[in-house]
Amino acid sequence: MKFPSVSFAKHNNNLFIRVLMIMLLSCATIRVDFCFSSIPSSLKALPLEGNFSFNENEFAARDYGNQYHFLPLAVLHPKSVSDIAITIKHIWQMGPLSRLTVAARGHGHSTRGQALADQGIVINMESLREQKMQFNTGRFPYVDVSASELWIKILHESLKHGLAPKSWTDYLHLTVGGTLSNAGISGQAFRHGPQISNVHELEVVTGKGEVVNCSDKKNADLFQSVLGGLGQFGIITKARISLEPAPKMVKWVRVLYSDFSTFARDQEFLISSKKTFDYIEGLVIINRTDVLNNWRSSFSPQDPDQASKFISDGRTLYCLELTKNFNPDKVDTVNQEIESLLSKLSYIPSTLFMSEVSYIEFLDRVHTSELKLRSKGLWDVPHPWLNLLIPRSKIKAFSQGVFGNILKDTNSSPVLIYPVNKSKWDNRTSFVLPEEDIFYLVAFLFHAIPSSSGTDGLEHILTLNKRILEFCEVAHLGVKQYLAHYTTQEQWQVHFGQRWEVFVQRKLAYDPLAILAPGQRIFQKGISIL
Ligand SMILES: Cc1cc2nc3c(=O)[nH]c(=O)nc-3n(C[C@H](O)[C@H](O)[C@H](O)COP(=O)(O)OP(=O)(O)OC[C@H]3O[C@@H](n4cnc5c(N)ncnc54)[C@H](O)[C@@H]3O)c2cc1C
Ligand SMILES: *[C@@H]1O[C@H](CO)[C@@H](O)[C@H](O)[C@H]1NC(C)=O
Ligand SMILES: *[C@@H]1O[C@H](CO)[C@@H](O)[C@H](O)[C@H]1NC(C)=O
Ligand SMILES: *[C@@H]1O[C@H](CO)[C@@H](O)[C@H](O)[C@H]1NC(C)=O
Ligand SMILES: *[C@@H]1O[C@H](CO)[C@@H](O)[C@H](O)[C@H]1NC(C)=O
Ligand SMILES: *[C@@H]1O[C@H](CO)[C@@H](O)[C@H](O)[C@H]1NC(C)=O
Fold this sequence. Notes:
alpha+beta, 5-stranded antiparallel sheet, 19 strands, binds 2-acetamido-2-deoxy-beta-D-glucopyranose
C-alpha cells in the first residue's frame, strides 16, 4: 500500500515564533546535552508504574483511516495518570531541541493519522485503567470515568444504575478522550448539544507535565481549550459526564423523501419542535435500487403491500431516521405521540418503516454493522472520510451541487445529513462552528476497496472528496470541516478564522513546546523554527 507523503505545517506565525524564542532564551537552565543522550535509555530510567515498549509497536503506527503509517519511537503503556505526567514532564524538560512528540492514542479511530507520532511517543490510553467508574445518582446524576474508557462500557455500567449519558456518537467503541477532543456529534445533539456540552469537569495533563483539574468554574480556560481541542493542550485523563434516566426501549422510524427541500424542512421542523423525537438524523441514498429490501431484515413496513411496490431506481432519496425512547408500560402513549408527529411530515407514505429495539441495541447499532463488515473483510480497509458542517442557508445549494451530481451513487457507504441548533454549543470551546444558528452535519463515510481502480477505489474517492471541497470553496458555502484534515498551518488558520489567535494563545499557555498531538499537523515542535 502507498502512503501519501506528508508535508508538515509551516510556521509563519510571528507571535508563536517570538514566544518560542523567548522561551528558549529563558531555558538556559536546561542542559542541552540532555537532548542528545540516548532517548530510549532516558525513558527507561523514568520511575513509572507502567512501561515503554520499543518493539512491536505496529498497532500504534496506523489508525482506522488506514491511509497513514508512522511508526513511533516508543509506546507508553501507562498504569497511572502520574506515568503520563512524568513522561511529558521529562520531554518538556528536554526543551525545544528535542524532536520528541507525544500523541495520546484513544481507540485509534481517527482517519487521518491524528493519533500518530512519527518517531515520537504514543500513549496507549487503553492501558490506563486505574479508575473504576464512580456514579453520583443524585438529582443531577453524573459519572466520573477514566478518559481511556470506551463509551460502550460507560453505557453498560450506567444502565446498571438506570442511567445513561445524554449525548452520543453513532459508534460507541471510541474513547471519552478521543471524542471530547473533537466534539461527539450524533442524533441527540439537536437537543443536548454535542458530547463536549455534556461534560462537567476534566482532569488534564498539560504539555508541561502538570496535572490540572478544570471545569467551567475552575481553570475554565483550560477546560474550554481542551474541549474540541484536537489534543493540542493536554491529555485528558478523567472526565465527569452528565447522565439522565435511561429509557428501556426505542421506537425506530425510517421514512423516505425524493425532494430535498421537503426533507430538510421536516428535519428542521422536528429539531425545533418542543415535543419531538429523541434522535434525529438522515441519510442520502443515491441509486440504490434495493434500498427498501435492505431494511426488511430489521424494519417492518407500515404498509407491506405499498412498500413492496416502491422502486427507488437510480434516484436520489433522503431517509429521515428518528427514534423515540419509551418504557414498556407507556407503549400506547409513545405510539400516539409518534403518530401525531408523523402526521405533520411530508414523506412518501408507502415508505414508512418501523422497528422496536432495546435502548442499548439502538445505541450500539454500528457495532452490529461492524461485525458484518468484519466478516466480509471490509472493516480494516482505507476510510477516506469527509465530514462537513454546512450553514442552513447553504444546504440546498450544497445538496444540488453534490448529491446525484458530484456524488453519483452511495452504493456501499453511508452518507449522513442532519441539522443541529447552535444554541446548545458553547462558543468558548476550541470547536469551530459555522456561521448561522442552524447548521447541518454532512458525513461521507466512505470506505475504499483495496487495490480497486473503480469507483470504490481509494484514488477515485479521494478525487471525489477533493471535488466536493472545491465545490464548497467556489460556491462560498461557508463550510467547516469536522474531524478536519489539513497539511499546512495556513489552512488551519483559515479553518479557525477569528478563533485562530485564541487557539495559538492557548497553545502557548498549555503546550508551548508543541509536544502534543503532532498528527493533527497544526504546530510543529520547536526545532524547525530555529
Ligand atoms: C465507525 C466510527 C463512527 C464514528 N461516529 C462518529 C459520530 O457519530 N460522531 C462523532 O462526533 N464522531 C464520530 N466518529 C469519529 C470519532 O469521534 C473520532 O475519530 C474520535 O477521535 C475517535 O476516538 P478515539 O478514541 O479512537 O480517538 P483517537 O483516534 O485515538 O484520537 C483522536 C485524537 O484525539 C487525541 N486524543 C485521544 N485521546 C486523548 C485524550 N485522552 N486526551 C487528549 N487527546 C486525546 C489523539 O491524539 C488524536 O489527535 C466515528 C468514528 C468511527 C471510526
Ligand atoms: C508493559 O505493560 C503492558 C500493559 O500494562 C503489559 O502487558 C506488559 O507485560 C508490560 N511489559 C513489561 C516488560 O513489563
Ligand atoms: C482532581 O480531582 C480528583 C477528584 O475530583 C482528585 O482525586 C484529584 O486529586 C484532583 N487532582 C488535582 C491535581 O487537583
Ligand atoms: C435554536 O434554539 C434557540 C434556543 O433554544 C431558539 O431560540 C431558536 O429559535 C432555535 N432556532 C431554530 C431555527 O429552531
Ligand atoms: C446505478 O447503478 C447501476 C449499477 O448498480 C448503474 O448501471 C447505473 O448506471 C447507475 N445509474 C445512475 C443514474 O448512475
Ligand atoms: C459567544 O456568544 C456570545 C453570545 O452570543 C457572545 O456574546 C460572545 O462574544 C461569543 N464569544 C465568542 C468567543 O465568540
